[in-house]
Design brief:
Shape: globular
Membrane topology: Multi-pass membrane protein
Strand content: under 5%
Number of domains: 1
Helix content: over 70%
Largest sheet: none
GO molecular function: symporter activity
Order of helices and strands: HHHHHHHHHHHHHHHHHHHHHHHH
Number of helices: 24
Protein name: Major facilitator superfamily (MFS) profile domain-containing protein
Number of strands: 0
Radius of gyration: 24 Å
InterPro entries: MFS_dom (IPR020846), MFS_sugar_transport-like (IPR005828), MFS_trans_sf (IPR036259), Myo-inositol_Transporter (IPR050814), Sugar/inositol_transpt (IPR003663), Sugar_transporter_CS (IPR005829)
GO cellular component, one term: membrane
Length: about 500
């Protein structure tokens, strides 16, 4: 017995007795995700700054409500062009140079908007800004997902939404900062300041490595190996990730050449749309339904209307002063930013599905309460302070609920579940759905509010949120802890798979 005990003591190691330490986050992967995700500032800044700038544009250029809706919402339609082109260019010139292109295009748009002499020229500038935003929205989550270690992918791929919210907050602050300037100058500076982040992003991204998955698709295995060694938590993980990517790209495991000829569908991008919609397997069909559903409901619940038209909503709630309305919108930006930061810490701890369902549950309660309060205010002869206070609180709670789940998960989930061969153009498809619904919502909010009242509009959005919760409960499986190459096995059944211990 003593001899056996001595043998165990000789072979035992320290880690056999002490619990394993949580691995540190890879700093290089963190820096890459951080820089790539900064492109999302472009969208956030435009949303935030336009919500306040439109007050002064309307007064200076004497435009109608319909022209306001078109000016605010048209960027989302232009973004469709950018996201479509980004899906192609990211497979052609790579993820990194597509990010540089996004910053350059938005830079041109910001300059044109800042010098706009009239409404038509302003719309011309919106075209370039929209294309740049479309590029950024598609490529940032794809690149971030492809460079992130499995252990922290949820944390890192939520960065784009973090920067969208940060951009919104900066836009709100810009509105307040320039609101005291002469009418003709203030709104032009609000829009023109967008050149600063776009220029910094275009230059900073040049220091980043290319996506290892894109390098493998192009047959540059040596380059991919070197990148993976930098962005993985260990050498063993780097080797395993390379083997998984090679398998997904159809490259034999025995092939270790620095450069190999890869002549397949992935290289040219041909056959992707056919595989997604015509010859799709049950798993691929399930993935496409999940991607479209998340992007559709993320925008259909009308949160962009809350952000874009928050001054109008606060005015309907009884806040009249321009300064007070702009300060209230700054509060919206602060709440969004705080809760998206909370979400980044929870995604890898609690998973995507629980946060998504919790987020939509909060949206349902907040939107229905906001709708009720606005209806009471609209039909009351006197100022109902309780309804006014509740309106402000529920605006804040709705953006908090959105930011804790629906906001970041649309980008995290939809980039990680798409197989490598479909990822770039599948992500572009998701952005097309996202921006199309966002354009519909933002370009109809004022007209819808006149047709069915502003309270009725939020009753409609609340109903859509309820439908979204039901759809997500049925079709969204959990993906936390799986590698990108393992995702496809989680799909194929349109029922959430619940284990006996309660895990999904």
């Amino acid at each position: 017995m003593a001899a056996e005990l001595q043998a165990v003591q000789k072979t035992a190691k320290l880690e056999d007795f002490d619990p394993p330490m949580k691995p540190k986050r890879n700093k290089f992967a963190l820096a890459c995700a951080f820089m790539a995700s900064m492109t999302s500032i472009l969208l956030g800044y435009d949303i935030g700054v336009m919500s306040g700038a439109i007050i002064y544009i309307r007064r200076d250029l004497h435009i109608t409500d319909v022209q306001v809706e078109v000016l605010v919402g048209i960027l989302n339609l232009y973004a469709l062009i950018g996201s479509f082109l980004a899906g192609k260019s990211s497979d052609w010139i790579g993820r990194r140079y597509s990010i540089v292109l996004a910053g350059g295009i938005f830079f041109v748009g910001a300059v044109l908007m800042g010098f706009s002499p009239n409404y038509a020229f302003l719309m011309f500038g919106r075209f370039f800004a929209g294309v740049g935003v479309g590029y950024a929205m598609m490529i940032a989550p794809v690149y971030t997902a492809e460079v992130s270690p499995t252990s922290s992918r949820g944390f890192l791929t939520s960065f784009p939404e973090v920067f969208i919210n940060f951009g919104i907050l900066v836009g709100y602050i810009s509105n307040f900062a320039f609101s005291k300037l002469p009418l003709w100058l203030g709104w032009r500076l609000m829009l023109g300041v967008g050149v600063v982040p776009s220029a910094l992003i275009a230059l900073g991204v040049l220091a980043m490595p290319e996506s290892p998955r894109w390098l493998v698709m192009k047959g540059r295995l040596g380059d991919a190996r070197r990148v993976l060694q930098k962005i993985s938590d260990s050498e063993q993980e780097a080797q395993q990730r390379l083997a998984d990517i090679k398998s997904a790209a159809g490259i034999p495991e025995s092939c270790n050449d620095d450069v190999v000829e890869v002549i397949n569908k992935q290289k040219s991008g041909k056959g992707v749309w056919k595989e997604m919609f015509i010859t799709a397997t049950p798993a691929i069909r399930h993935i496409i339904v999940a991607v479209i559903s998340i992007h559709f409901f993320q925008q259909a619940v009308g949160l962009d209307s809350v952000v874009l038209y928050s001054p109008t909503i606060f005015e309907k709630a009884g806040i009249r002063s321009d300064s007070q309305k702009l300060l209230a919108t700054v509060a919206v930006g602060v709440i969004k930013t705080i809760f998206i930061l909370v979400a980044t810490c929870l995604l890898d701890q609690f998973g995507r599905r629980p946060l998504l369902l919790t987020s939509f549950g909060g949206l349902i309660v907040s939107l229905f309460t906001l709708a009720t309060c606005l209806t009471v205010i609209e039909h009351s002869d006197k100022k109902v302070m309780l309804a006014v206070v509740l309106s402000v609180i529920t605006v804040l709670s709705s953006v908090a609920s959105f930011s804790i789940g629906a906001g970041p998960i649309a980008w995290v989930y939809c980039t990680e579940v798409l197989p490598l061969r479909l990822r770039a153009q599948g992500a572009a498809m998701g952005v097309v759905v996202n921006r199309s619904i966002c354009a519909l919502v933002s370009m109809t909010f004022l007209s819808l509010s006149k047709a069915i009242t502003i309270g009725g509009s939020f009753f409609l959005y609340g109903t859509i949120a309820l439908i979204g919760w039901i759809v997500f409960f049925i079709v969204i499986p959990e993906t936390r802890g799986k590698t990108l190459e393992e995702m496809e096995a989680s799909f194929g059944s349109f029922r959430a798979k619940v284990k006996p211990n309660g895990e999904v």
